[in-house]
Specification:
The protein folds into four domains: 81-279, Heat Shock Protein 90, CATH 3.30.565; 285-451, Ribosomal Protein S5, domain 2 (2-Layer Sandwich); 462-595 and 652-688, 3-Layer(aba) Sandwich (Rossmann fold); 598-631. The chain is built from 20 helices and 25 strands. The strands form five sheets. Strands 3, 4, 5, 6, 7, 8, 9, 10 and 11 form a nine-stranded mixed beta sheet that branches. The protein has a six-stranded mixed beta sheet with strand order 2-24-20-19-17-18, sandwiched between helices. The protein has a five-stranded mixed beta sheet with strand order 12-13-16-14-15, with helices on both faces. Helix 4 (152-158) packs across helix 5 and helix 8 runs parallel beside helix 10. The longest helix has 28 residues, at 428-455. The protein is globular, with a radius of gyration of 27 Å.
């Protein structure tokens, strides 16, 4: 049985934090989207008929009788190359790549703002699914380009690596240095219309799938300047062109924080009434850090802000400690988020650790003169934003996930070393509260050290200790192994009987485990519910220590009852993975099993459904008027055969793959829903309760 999937948008801060992954038909599993918050407050609706489909498998034929000659060599030029291999330019064609199109156009407007020529940007998702981006910058030049003989605006939109950011002096600082942004959007759109207000006139031109569809024409006069771009993503390229407004809100709120001079207006005209958001933060990254700590308890009222220059390069850092245990540090270069960090983040971390240790020794706050606080100690409960601006950034790839400029490490280190030390010395009470926090973290780390050693594996195939309730698999290759973390001994028993022993392992859990959002790492190690998970997975614990190469299973599948308690258990486990095993989530190793809620049968024939709509669909397709209905209240009610058939068999089961799309939104929702503050959680639940479905109350 291969159930169908219906994609729902989930509102709220969590949308976009965890996202979709397109399944590979050859993988066997049917993988659906998890574009929703990890709490599953708004549960998915599964449109499932439960009717068994024929499963076909084919072998890949490596034989090729055809010859290989010069005729087989293809040269892809310009827009053709982009359309043939879009992933090379926007990462992929999933929701993430779709949103990257908008970001490329907005980034050009932000570059105008960085150059001092723009202070207002509007982004509108139109009713037909197209997007309009408008700014009040200087407008794209429209004069004839000397090299091509075409209007410059046409060159920008139809020629790769054409732009004003290659040292011409038009842009001192820019996020888009490859000159492919606008042209890539043109290539991957059904159409793109651009209007330019410049030199007293309004110009317009249209492109369709990368090709110029109309000549540049003058359509009016104006006393304003700027550029207005409207494009519709190409359905031949993207499986879905349904933009996630909440994801856009998160991304462009971030942009407004990083550029305090600009105002960004977001509007969604697909809803009735339209949603309209105005984003402007005069405090810049100071306001950003305050936003990160909005549902936490800060240790000091105002964030610490330091900044400095070196030649044409600029670095600014804002940081504020809270009473929590998670680290929330985000880095940017020329407004580009760098989730993989880079030289600027490395410089910040090393300098922060040095400053805190130097201050501790200077004022004799460390009892042992030879003892030093480690990086994890000084970053516990830290919210920080590092933003650098530089003329020639060295990014990795077009999607720019990591900064490589070595000079930025030196600049950030110097700024933090000099100015943070001065701040601490001038504010001794704040310095003492921060040092107390760091020292407490150090003591907790020492208390957890022995437990950490017990949970580490010597290598992938060899373990020191494995939990007693683990029913391990026979296969030794982790890439072929999967582990089901199952709620309850009863369901665990059925899973053990129904599994494929060769590659499926079963780890039963009982009761609800620790909420790690409210606990320090030493409490995590001592928790009897979490220890078996740590030991079974074998990769260790702690985001900096977790070793994916030692992971014993490359599919970690959470299998809990389809009710509120099951959702809570999944949420607790996802919170644990996100806070203490983030590489596990980032690597795409975490899945959620989707057991059916109903068995609809008549005589010897029966089918499975995931919700009441699926039951009705089965009735319609089979013509059954009053079939018998079995409601599964828990996994333990299924026999081993039923559990295998519906939830564990790769040929017929349905899995949701957990992917991290927006770490900031994920951090926000984890804090909101799993943290100590009750009122924000209550407000969120009251606001979004109407979206919750299939709750087994």
């Amino acid at each position: 049985m291969i159930p169908n999937d219906e994609k729902n948008r989930v509102p709220g801060a969590a949308a976009g934090a965890f996202g979709a992954h397109a399944p590979n038909p050859e993988d066997g599993d049917v993988v659906s989207n998890l574009a929703e918050d990890p709490t599953a407050l708004a549960r998915r609706d599964f449109d499932d008929t439960g009717i068994e489909d024929e499963v076909r498998t084919e072998s890949f034929d490596t034989s090729n009788a055809a010859s290989y000659s010069e005729r087989d060599i293809q040269v892809l030029e310009g827009m053709e190359a982009v359309r043939k291999r879009p992933g090379m330019y926007i990462g992929d064609t999933t929701l993430r790549g779709l949103h990257h199109l908008v970001y490329e156009i907005v980034a050009n407007s932000v570059d105008e703002a960085l150059a001092g020529r723009c202070d207002h940007i509007s982004v509108t998702v139109n009713a037909d699914g197209s997007v309009t981006v408008e700014d009040n910058g200087s407008g794209i030049p429209v004069g004839i380009n000397d090299k091509t003989g075409k209007p410059t605006v046409e060159v920008v939109h139809t020629v790769l690596h054409a732009g004003g950011k290659f040292g011409s002096g038009a842009y001192t600082v820019s996020g888009g240095l490859h000159g492919v942004g606008a042209s890539v959007v043109t290539a991957l759109s059904e159409y793109l219309d651009v209007e330019v207000r410049r030199e007293g006139r309004v110009y317009r031109q249209r492109y369709e799938r990368g090709i110029t569809a109309s000549p540049l024409e003058t359509i009016g006069e104006t006393d304003r300047t700027g550029t207005r771009t409207t494009f519709l993503p190409d359905r031949q390229i993207f499986p879905s062109i349904d933009f996630d407004f909440d994801m856009m809100l998160s991304r462009y709120r971030e942009m407004a924080f990083l550029n305090k001079e600009i105002t960004i207006r977001l509007r969604d005209e697909r809803s009735d009434p339209p949603v309209d958001k105005k984003l402007h933060y005069a405090g810049g990254i100071i306001s950003f850090v305050e936003y990160l700590n909005v549902n936490k308890e800060p240790l000091h009222r105002l964030p610490i802000y330091v900044a400095g220059r070196s030649g044409g390069d600029f670095a600014e850092i804002a940081l504020q400690y809270n009473d929590g245990y998670a680290e929330s540090v985000y880095s940017y270069a020329n407004n580009i988020a760098t989730p993989e960090g880079g030289s600027h983040l490395t410089g910040f971390r090393s300098a922060l650790t040095k400053v805190v240790n130097d201050y501790s020794r200077k004022y004799k706050l460390l009892k042992d003169a030879d003892k030093s606080l480690q990086g994890d100690d000084v970053r516990e409960g830290l919210a920080a934003v590092i933003s650098v601006k530089l003329a020639n950034p060295q990014f990795e790839g077009q999607t720019k996930s990591k900064l490589g400029n070595p000079e930025m490490r030196t600049l950030v280190e110097n700024v933090v070393n000099e100015k943070l030390m001065t701040y601490l010395e001038e504010n001794p009470s704040i310095a003492r509260s921060i040092l107390d926090k760091c020292l407490s973290a150090s003591r907790a780390r020492e208390a957890a050290r022995k437990a950490r050693e017990m949970t580490r594996r010597k290598n992938v195939l060899e373990s020191t200790t494995l939990p007693g309730k683990l029913a391990d698999c026979q296969e030794n290759d982790p890439s072929l192994c999967e582990i089901f973390i199952v709620e309850g001994d009863s369901a665990g028993g059925s899973a053990k009987q129904g599994r494929e022993r060769k590659y499926q392992a079963i780890l039963p859990l009982w009761g609800k485990m620790l909420n790690v959002e409210r606990a320090r790492i030493d409490k995590v190690y001592d928790n009897e519910k979490l220890q078996p998970v740590i030991m079974a997975l074998g990769g260790g614990i702690g985001n900096s220590d977790f070793d994916v190469s030692k992971l014993r299973y490359h599919k970690v599948i959470l299998m809990a009852d389809a009710d509120v308690d099951g959702s809570h258990i999944r949420t607790l486990l996802l919170t644990f993975f996100f806070r203490y095993m983030k590489p596990l989530v980032e690597g795409g190793f975490v899945y959620i099993a989707c057991p059916p809620l109903y068995r609809v049968y008549q005589g010897n024939d029966g089918y499975y459904a995931y919700d009441e709509a699926g039951v009705e669909e089965i009735k319609q397709r089979t013509g059954w008027k009053e079939p018998k209905l079995q409601r599964y209240k828990g996994l333990g009610e299924m026999s081993a055969e039923q559990l295998w058939e519906t939830t564990m068999n790769p040929a017929s089961r349905k899995l949701m793959k957990v992917e991290l799309q927006d770490a900031q939104s994920a951090d926000e929702i984890m804090t909101l829903l799993m943290g100590d503050k009750v009122e924000p959680r209550k407000e969120f639940i009251q606001t979004h309760a109407k979206y919750a479905t299939n709750l087994d109350i």
